[in-house]
Design brief:
It is a single chain. This protein folds into five domains: 5-128 and 251-319, FAD/NAD(P)-binding domain (3-Layer(bba) Sandwich); 143-246, 3-Layer(bba) Sandwich (FAD/NAD(P)-binding domain); 324-471, Jelly Rolls (Sandwich); 484-604, Jelly Rolls; 620-809, no CATH class. Helix content is 31%, strand content 24%. It has 24 helices and 41 strands. Strands 1, 2, 5, 6, 7, 8 and 17 form a seven-stranded mixed β-sheet that branches. The protein has a five-stranded parallel β-sheet with strand order 9-16-10-11-12. The N and C termini lie far apart (93 Å). The relative contact order is 0.07.
């Protein structure tokens, strides 16, 4: 081709095809270069029969190509027809090898010759550059990175690594195609932050029906022929595995893109090209759209393809399809600015957004809130539950750390990160220090941000660590004092039961518990004796720094946890620079040493009591109460089996009890009935489509009206405390029952009575769980109704204190 076209589009995926179709409709000279012999190679490589979703629903489609939810084959057929009707000038099997020149005179070398163009639209995607597994055995031939046809898999043990949309869809495909397949899907975290809600819902349903096993907080540790060793929250596990489908995401072909002169937002593999609001890169005349621009949803890509050609054609008045939704988000702010200015304002003034591309920023803000606060306005109170993250765009925030004492948080920084990471209640009251603009980021959106933008994750982790250390060690520490400590810190994931420190070993690293909890044990008389429980926000290991002696206790993970490891050398330098911090740390060490001596002295004279206390604590940790914030316990020495607790619960909740007194496990005389624990990070919240599960002001996890009966919460709860039930008909009053005998009496009505009242009617089932009697005066009815005081609700810390007192009494 000798004459230069107005625009050359490289890549015929949804973004590139939409761009070429717009050029064709506008009559612009163009060429669409595709390296394969077919259009839209990414969609073409989707598994056979895959259902393609047209999300997000709120976003209007702006393209000359059709797109609605449907099977892969249907969509590709439509696009082939649309390319022809829009007079797209496509050259297939034209792989691009080099781009040179400048705006107005680019030369594109391909396997089909050289093409000249005034402008280039780069829409090549990232699927050709997938992330690889990194554990031992990652080069074995039974590891594959795509699933072309689920019919190829019959009677296999298949493990899917990665729980984004691609991984979930592959798992569903191979599970549904051949029911004799054994399918397992692995997710490193508890949350499915990268996947669409519908895909997660379909996966959970498949898991409930036995079509696949869903393993969260689990990752591959070693691959062997026919076997896969997993690292799980409860330790290593070996499973049979014939095929591994690794769907770990992909990254931009950075070398090729940078060879054109295009700059990226940062050095990380996951970074994206720097782009203007009109998709123009740092090389004038080269535009980047689609997955390579940072957001791969098909509808977004197609809109970008349409928009970029309009921009190239001089349509500067065009606004993106999501403009009206973003305008509504910014409408309540005191200043009047266009959406593009607000986005750039936030992106340049808030540190966690520094590496976010303008396109990512648009999508990210659709899941966030922006609000104006007057000086003195409370953002949240100390002790409130909350897992959202706040960022300061303008003004500053003030943290109330004591009577008449506040600490400022400067513009550009964040707060609320403790609730996001550890699930603990808000640690302090925060107010606006002056008239301010704060961005509130939901937990889901924050997790997506951290997963997609490494720079944002680093900022959040660093600030979180600085704040934790400042809060723990006090003594006049400043952020500058912590610089070396934070620079050398590492984050470690620890499964439940794993030993972090071993008594008698040498070491001086210090650990901060970022999330989860630990238990401390000491060998006394050849038996491990429980010393204490350490919740998120605690630290341990500092004795080795101060004394240089071997570890004097063993520390294990009570539940799956994240730890921040601080090197002994940097910690020692920090203590040397701040004598008052060293003094406070030495005082804490002395207190712990005194407790250890006390336990050892008790061992000699009260051996059985110490053993019982230690064994009881181990039982509680084994039952998962380490992640609880409020658990129901029953002292069976006091319980008379009257079932008043169940009856009172039912009478307080439309006739449906939220607890099962007899179910659950018992150790000695302490019983853990089946009742909600109100976890730090509630598993039931992980996938609630109508978003009706929330935390109340006292930390209770409750369900508001609106449950659709999907059962996701019941399936996600590892403790079996949620069940799906239909509300029974309204019972007569207690007085009427006493006087006339009419009705089922106190407590949950019998199935027989319920069936008689309803007849053939089958009311819809919804999820029911303990809400700690939210809104009912006097607190939990189960505790109030217990005539002997056997029923109590406690946190793990309180439980261990109670266990100690009870064993003292014994």
């Amino acid at each position: 081709m000798s004459d230069a076209v107005k625009v050359a589009i490289i890549g015929s995926g949804p973004a590139g095809l939409s761009a070429a179709s717009r050029a064709g409709q506008l009559g612009l000279s163009h060429v669409l270069l595709e390296k394969t012999d077919h259009l839209s190679d990414t969609i073409f490589k989707y598994q056979k029969g895959k259902r393609v979703l047209a999300t997000p629903d709120r976003l209007d489609l702006r393209s000359d190509c059709r797109f609605a939810e449907g099977a892969r084959e249907y969509i590709l057929g439509n696009w082939d027809e649309d390319a022809a009707s829009n007079k797209v000038n496509v050259v297939k099997e034209a792989e691009v090898t080099e781009v040179t020149g400048q705006q107005g005179a680019f030369e594109i070398k391909t396997s089909k010759g050289v093409f000249k163009a005034e402008n280039i639209v780069l829409a090549i995607g990232t699927q050709g550059n997938p992330n690889r597994m990194r554990c031992p055995g990652n080069d074995l031939p039974h590891i594959i990175y795509t699933v072309d046809d689920p019919e190829d898999f019959k009677d296999k043990h298949i493990t899917v690594v990665g729980s984004g949309d691609a991984g979930i869809e592959n798992a569903l495909g191979v599970a549904e195609e051949a029911l004799e397949n054994t399918v397992t899907i692995l997710n490193r975290s508890k949350d499915f932050a990268r996947a669409k809600a519908k895909n997660v819902s379909d996966m959970m349903e498949a898991g409930e029906n036995g079509f696949m096993s869903i393993r969260t907080e689990t990752q591959p540790k070693m691959v062997e022929p026919g076997w896969l060793t997993l690292e799980t929250p409860t330790g290593d596990e070996k499973i049979q595995c014939d095929v591994i489908v690794a769907r770990l995401g992909s990254v931009a072909p950075r070398g090729f893109v940078e060879s054109m002169g295009i700059e990226f937002t940062g050095p990380d593999r996951e970074a994206f090209p720097k782009l203007s609001p009109t998709f123009e890169s740092t090389v004038p005349g080269i535009f980047v759209i689609g997955a390579l621009a940072g957001y791969p949803l098909i509808k977004h890509c197609m809109n970008q393809g349409y928009d970029v050609v309009e921009f190239i054609n001089g349509n500067t008045a065009l606004t993106p399809a999501d403009e009206k939704d973003l305008a509504a988000i910014f409408a309540g702010l005191p200043q009047q600015k266009p959406v593009s200015e607000w986005l750039e304002y936030l992106r340049t003034r808030i540190r966690i957004f520094a590496d976010v591309s303008p396109l990512q920023m648009r999508e990210f803000m659709l899941d966030s809130k922006v609000a104006f606060y007057r000086k003195g306005d409370v953002v949240f109170e100390k002790g409130e539950p909350g897992s959202s993250l706040f960022a300061i765009a303008d003004g500053h925030a003030e943290v109330e750390v004591g009577p008449d004492l506040t600490v400022p948080i400067e513009q550009g920084s964040i707060f609320g990160e403790v609730g996001l990471i550890s699930g603990r209640k808000r640690g302090a009251t925060i107010r606006a220090g002056e008239d301010s603009i704060f961005v509130e980021v939901s937990r889901t959106a924050a997790l997506k941000l951290m997963a997609a933008v490494p720079g944002a994750k680093r900022v959040i982790n660093r600030i979180s660590l600085e704040r934790q250390l400042l809060q723990i060690f006090k003594g006049g520490l400043t952020v500058d004092d912590l610089a070396e400590v934070v620079d050398t810190a590492e984050v470690e994931r620890v499964p439940a039961g794993k030993t972090v420190l071993t008594e008698g070993e040498q070491g001086d690293d210090v650990y901060v518990i970022r999330s989860g909890s630990m238990v401390v044990e000491k060998d006394i008389g050849g038996k491990p004796i429980f010393l204490r429980y350490l919740p998120a926000g605690s630290f341990f290991g500092e004795m080795g720094v101060l004394s240089g002696e071997p570890r004097n206790a063993t520390v294990k993970a009570a539940v799956g946890a994240e730890l921040i490891k601080l090197t002994g050398e940097s910690f020692r330098k920090m203590l040397a620079a701040r004598p008052q911090v060293r003094e406070a740390t030495e005082a804490a060490v002395a207190e712990r040493a005194q407790m250890n001596s006390f336990i050892e002295s008790r061992k000699a004279s009260y051996s059985s009591a110490v053993d019982l206390y230690s064994d009881t604590a181990s039982f509680i940790m084994k039952e998962g109460l380490g992640e609880a914030t409020d658990a129901l316990l029953i002292d069976e020495n006091l319980c008379v089996g009257c079932d008043n607790c169940e009856k009172a619960c039912a009478d307080s909740h439309e006739g449906l009890s939220r607890l099962d007194r007899e179910a659950g496990k018992t150790f000695a005389h302490l019983h853990v009935p089946t009742s909600c624990r109100h976890c730090e990070h509630p598993h039931c919240m992980a996938d609630c489509p109508p978003n009706v599960i929330h935390r109340g002001p006292d930390g209770e996890v409750f369900m508001e009206p609106g449950c659709i009966g999907c059962g996701n919460c019941m399936r996600n709860c590892p403790y079996g405390v949620i069940r799906m039930e239909a509300a029974p008909p309204q019972k007569p009053s207690l007085l009427r029952w006493l006087l006339t005998g009419f009705g089922p009496g106190p407590g949950e009505p019998s199935p027989k009575w319920t069936k008689k009242q309803l007849g053939e009617e089958k009311p819809k089932k919804i999820a029911v769980k303990c809400d700690m009697c939210k809104g009912i005066a006097g607190g939990p009815a189960c505790v109030r109704a217990c005539p002997t005081g056997a029923a109590i609700r406690v946190s793990p810390e309180e439980f261990l204190s109670i266990a100690r007192l009870q064993e003292d009494a014994d």
